[in-house]
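User: Fold this; tokens only.

Assistant: Input:
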Amino acid sequence: MPKTAQEVFNLRRMQTYEPILRGVHGTYLFDIDKVGSWFVAVDDGTLHIEEKKRDADCTISCDERDFVDLVEGRRQLMTAYMQGRVQIHGDMALAQKFHGLVSTKVEERRGAA
């Protein structure tokens, strides 16, 4: 299990295709407070990740602990957004796709355990 945002993105860079995101086209910027920014382009499930700040269709901003909790399934994106722990700007449908991806991955890990 990754413990930092850098570890999360390093793991994701190894996987350039995510079947759950088939049919999804758009860009994300994950802006992690005091850590860095990662730009993720999704094109029909193919992922391209850069460690840089760029304009994106959907920007998700939070601190590192909340980000890792989101990715690991310990925190729900929309609940964290409503609590003010996460800021989402831009395309909310893409934000919900990210939430769906995380939820599915968590369920896969639970099933494998």
